């Protein structure tokens, strides 16, 4: 949690810690659209990957939930410093979140680590998936929320605060939010 976060509903912190300390939790999306920074794994990590490698088609930056495995993070930094032969501050000038997501996914894909991988068809960045869902009356919110809870929110109990506020700006969005197992608004909650 940071200063922009807020606990919305009480919960047992041990449930959250137990779920997320076993293995890294990673939310990625698939589909046509999404946040993809191919230059990171091509140029920064220096990975030579074929164009059909699944890493080209995943969407990252879909939530601001991070329970970082510090051993995995250290391995990422060590790897990058070895590739660039310089301290990390020389070549990371943006969000290390994206790097961690790609490194975690690649480590999972290479069977170096076990992750709790949540693969969602769609793009949750900028609340896209929820906007599409709440604007389409044909989508059953109960079925959709059950899927989202089973695959993601029961693990993390959190969602970006500004996305929550956007959900709550419409009646159907409020209905969906009430069905989701979100206990903590993380990042960008206050002031919106």
List the helices and strands and how they pair.
Elements: E1 6-7, H1 13-21, E2 25-30, H2 38-44, H3 70-84, H4 96-109, E3 116-121, H5 128-134, H6 141-156, E4 158-160, H7 161-167, H8 171-179, E5 184-186
Parallel strand pairs: 2-3, 4-5
Antiparallel strand pairs: 1-5
Helix pairs in contact: 6-8
Order of helices and strands: EHEHHHEHHEHHE
Percent in helix: 40-55%
The beta-strand count equals: 5
Beta-strand residue percentage: 5-15%
Oligomer, anyone? single chain
Descriptive notes:
The two termini are 18 Å apart. The protein has eight helices and five strands. The protein is 44% helix and 10% strand. The chain has helices spanning 13-21, 38-44, 70-84, 96-109, 128-134, 141-156, 161-167, 171-179; strands at residues 6-7, 25-30, 116-121, 158-160, 184-186. With 192 residues, the chain is mainly alpha-helical. Helix 6 (141-156) packs across helix 8. It has one domain. The strands form two sheets. A three-stranded mixed sheet has the order 1-5-4. A two-stranded parallel sheet has the order 2-3.
Based on the model shown, name its key terms.
single chain; 192 residues; mainly alpha; three-stranded mixed sheet; two-stranded parallel sheet; 10% strand
Short overview:
The chain is built from 8 helices and 5 strands. It is mainly α and 192 residues long.
């Amino acid at each position: 949690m940071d200063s922009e976060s807020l606990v919305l509903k009480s919960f047992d912190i041990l449930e959250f810690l137990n779920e997320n300390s076993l293995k890294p939790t990673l939310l990625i999306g698939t589909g046509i659209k999404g946040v993809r920074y191919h230059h990171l794994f091509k140029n920064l990590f220096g990975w030579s990957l074929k164009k059909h490698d699944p890493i080209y088609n995943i969407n990252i930056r879909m939530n601001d939930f991070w329970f970082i495995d510090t051993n995995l993070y250290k391995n990422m930094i060590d790897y990058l410093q070895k590739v660039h032969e310089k301290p990390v501050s020389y070549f990371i000038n943006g969000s290390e979140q994206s790097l961690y997501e790609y490194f975690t996914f690649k480590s999972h894909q290479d069977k170096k680590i076990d992750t709790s991988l949540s693969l969602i068809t769609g793009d949750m960045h900028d609340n896209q998936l929820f906007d599409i869902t709440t604007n389409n009356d044909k989508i059953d919110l109960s079925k959709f929320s059950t899927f989202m809870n089973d695959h993601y929110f029961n693990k993390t109990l959190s969602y970006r605060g500004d996305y929550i506020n956007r959900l709550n700006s419409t009646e159907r969005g409020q209905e969906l939010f009430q069905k989701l197992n979100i206990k903590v608004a993380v990042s960008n909650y206050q002031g919106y």
